[in-house]
Amino acid sequence: MVMSMKQASREKGRPLASSLFAAILYVVMFVIYSINAPSAITLGGITDLLNNTIVLAIASAGLTLIILAAELDLSSVGVIAVSNVLVATVSTKMPAGTIGTLLLVCLVGLLVGLTNGWLVAFLGLQSLACTLGTMIMCQGIALVILDAPGGEVAAFIMNRLTDTVFGMIPVAGLILAVVVLAWLLFRRTRLGIAIYAVGTDAVASHLTGIDVKGTKLRVFALAGVAYGLAGYLLSAQTGTGDPRVSNSFLLYVFAAVAIGGTSLGGGRGGVIGSVIGAGILTVMQKLLFAVGVADFYTNIFSGLIMVVAILFGNLSAILTLHQRMPLTRHGDRGYSAQ
Amino acid sequence: MEIAGTRLSNRPDMENTASPKVRFTVSALRPETITALLVLLATTLMMLIMKALNPTFGSLEQIAAILTTSIFLVVASYGQGLVILLGGIDLSIGVVMSIGGMIIAGLTNGSNQALVWAIPVTLLSCIAIGLVNGLGVAFLKVPPFIMTLAVATAAFGVALGLTAGSSQRTVAPALQQLMSARITGIPIPILLIGCSLIGGSLLQSRTAEGRKLYAIGSSVAAARIVGLPIEALTIGAYGMSGLCASVAGILLAGYSSGATLDMGDPYLMPSIAAVVIGGASVTGGKGNYLGTFAGAIFLSALSTIITVLSLSQGWRNIIQGGIIVVALTLQTKQWYLQKIANRPLTGQGSPNRALSQNSKV
Fold this sequence. Notes:
The structure holds two protein chains of two kinds.
Chain A lengths: L1 H10 L1 H24 L6 H26 L7 H15 L6 H26 L4 H19 L9 H6 L3 E2 L3 E2 H16 L3 H11 L1 H6 L4 H27 L8 H13 L11 H21 L3 H27 L11 H4 L2
Antiparallel strand pairs in A: 1-2
Helix pairs in contact in A: 2-13, 2-14, 3-8, 3-9, 3-11, 3-12, 3-13, 4-5, 4-6, 4-11, 5-6, 5-11, 9-11, 12-13, 13-14
Chain B lengths: L3 H6 L2 H7 L1 H8 L3 H23 L6 H26 L7 H16 L6 H24 L5 H20 L9 H8 L1 E2 L2 E2 H19 L1 H11 L1 H7 L3 H26 L12 H10 L11 H20 L4 H27 L11 H8 L3
Antiparallel strand pairs in B: 1-2
């Protein structure tokens, strides 16, 4: 128990370092991008980039919470699809459409998240498999609500959320700033600390009196709300409803989390890294397009950049941790030294 | 607190690697086997309910068709099962299946003579993709989730560049016959399923290499102390996954007498679900091929049965997802009941669960 507490405190330094590497990578990519596409550093260009980033960023922020608690969640694309078709069908018909729809999609996300959390925490299902089930169900629900791409998103949502405020601050950037700020406050809360503890060692956390099941339930619920919000913002970008959100988006959500330095084994990392990871993936596509790379090369480079980004993260982990290796399942080097 | 020493001392995999005969007698009673049989029972039950609701359903022909179409998932999920046994995951299976189908269709182009060299070329190319996955995971320490995703994305890009996205010409007629012909009344694919079940189970559970995968999946640290060649076995498992996916791709190309670049995609998520429904743990070290096989048959039967129902795609998805969750719940409850006496304190669904479950067999 004592050991795992020490371990947890020692590991606090690591996500910072690896998100620093991700941030450096992001800056490098952005500079190359803006050299090739000078419009990138205008207000319009930055707003555009942030608009393209935000859906992935919010979804991966939600997933980060779950991965920190050592679980996995595939339901994000399902919730985003449901939320997207809901916005496209009801936002123009509801009174107070903007706020009403926002509350509605957050509620839907919350419900799906609570279902996932209950299945994982209280019934003991493996999260990867049972969220696959709820993902398929959500995709079905989206198809039932809207069986083909279409619908209409309220003009207010479409125009205001993709624009700038006071003519200088992109709304998407503002939302991202709020998310990052909320995370910085949240990680100091009881629940925020409990997530790291549960993700590092569930048994030890249980023994110290942390409500492991309750923590996991809350984490899934929070992530569900984030996915709902991501779907809402997606609707603002596309202005239409599409029940089929591609599965490749799901994989990008995971990639953003991993590139941001969050360990897929749980207990290490944070939301800021994931937001930067989402930024890297988005700017990567823009960069490849700006350089004029053919479509199929884009895929090859995407794969390459993902691996390079992870290697950066690994490098930083080695640099910050070279003197003491933890005695965990993943860090097995401690054993061989004995 | 789990200390390395206590974990090691009651870890059965080590002893069993040394004396496979002991494992043989024990394995008949393994909980995994019970899970697999329960899943098969559920599949049968599902078909019987369907029969009761719709008397025209459930002819022998239809069951043979369900089994025939399940071969792709049965074969592909074997590789996925091996990788998951190590605690990894292979997200490249869908793309590799498509690429396997594309290569075989492109190389044979309707000629049977070309099969002689086209099959080895296809298999080797796909194994190479798997090996790249394995190398990245074993030596670069890239998380399997990202490595296989990145390799799949890149491999898809190469395939897209080479084919310009067009669907390939007709596949060799011999492959099409293979998928439709019968020997003594039994369709060949069903015989192939039987062979793969026996061969796969033997390889995974009865050979030393297979048992070593269990050991690594249970604890990399312990496996390293014992001196197991972790890197080589990891690379081998991913290579095997590439091989299985390419075989599934070749069969799929033969079945649909052509290949497209996205034909393998619908098999990626089910291949993971099949492994987990079959009683494996995604954190590794647990599960066997009989379970994966049962999971694959279950999912294939489920999707076929649901297609028979005259429902909209949305409702079909809702039912399919719901049944997957229910199947998992039943399977987990069974584990839970067996475990409750031994380890009431174990955090459910946590990574440590896989560890504690392995300390009793």
